[in-house]
Amino acid sequence: MEVFNALGRRKSAVARVYLNTGSGNITVNDRPLDEYFKEDTLRYIVNQPLVLTSTEGQYDIKVNVDGGGIKGQAEAIRLGIARVLCKVDAEAFRPVLKSNGFLTRDAREVERKKPGQPGARRRFQFSKR
């Protein structure tokens, strides 16, 4: 089987996902998934598309992820895995993944800081006198 690849993004994290037939190994930046993501919730986020499509243990996944925080990286990997599964078998996997919202790119980004303010929306305390 050929190698399928897809891109996943979230906030400022970018994940390049490569899928191959195998025994279910997931490697993130040349490290096993359990070693890269210490928290169970983050590993759960990454595995959601595989659990939903009942393809756990069928594919080896290699991921290169860069930028953002640990949660943004996990969600970028989830989008990448969902997209690459659609490339493998669109008729079987696409309706299930789309109905659960795994093919939608979450476009929310951090709003930039404005000049004369301490943050994006926050103002310095107003003093009348």
Give an overview of the whole structure.
With 129 residues, this protein is α+β, with helices and mostly antiparallel strands. It has one domain: Ribosomal Protein S5, domain 2. The protein is 36% helix and 22% strand. The chain has 4 helices and 5 strands, in the order ββββααβαα. A hairpin with a 2-residue loop joins strand 1 and strand 2.
Secondary structure elements and their pairing?
Blueprint (H helix, E strand, L loop, with lengths): L3 E7 L2 E9 L4 E3 L2 E2 H4 L3 H13 L6 E8 L3 H19 L1 H10 L30
Parallel strand pairs: 3-5
Antiparallel strand pairs: 1-2, 2-5, 3-4
Helix pairs in contact: 2-3, 3-4
Characteristic key phrases:
Ribosomal Protein S5, domain 2, 4 helices
Structural class: alpha+beta
Helix content: 25-40%
- The average pLDDT score comes to 94
Q: Kindly give the count of domains.
A: 1
Biggest pleated sheet: 5 strands, mixed
**How far do the termini sit from each other?**
74 Å
The counted number of beta strands is 5
Order of helices and strands: EEEEHHEHH
Number of helices: 4
Instruction: Note the overall shape.
Output: elongated
Q: At CATH's second level, what is the architecture?
A: 2-Layer Sandwich
The top level CATH class name: Alpha Beta
Tell me the Rg in angstroms: 18 Å
What fold name goes in the CATH topology slot?
Answer: Ribosomal Protein S5, domain 2
Strand content: 15-25%
Strand order of the largest sheet: 1-2-5-3-4
Low-confidence stretches: none
